[in-house]
Specification:
Length: 95
Amino acid sequence: MHRYYVYMLASKKNGTLYIGVTNNLALRVREHKDGSVEGFTKKYNVHVLVYFESYNDIRDAIIREKRLKKWKRKWKIRLIEGMNPKWADLFPEIR
């Protein structure tokens, strides 16, 4: 069985947010942290894993990612703080 993840990275508490989807959360977050992923997260130093959800079906994960990207910022912050009120880096928990 495969697992798929929708995740949010932040530059800091209440900072810049990034939403992505992957089938290997630990590897993908490591790539963001290492700066080996060119683009938005590298440019804006967005590498703190503050939120994630898991899915069995990639289609469900992609739908969720697209919906979250359309959400207002305050809704995203509420979602993060519901799971991770201190905006701690969750990466050590998933390695």
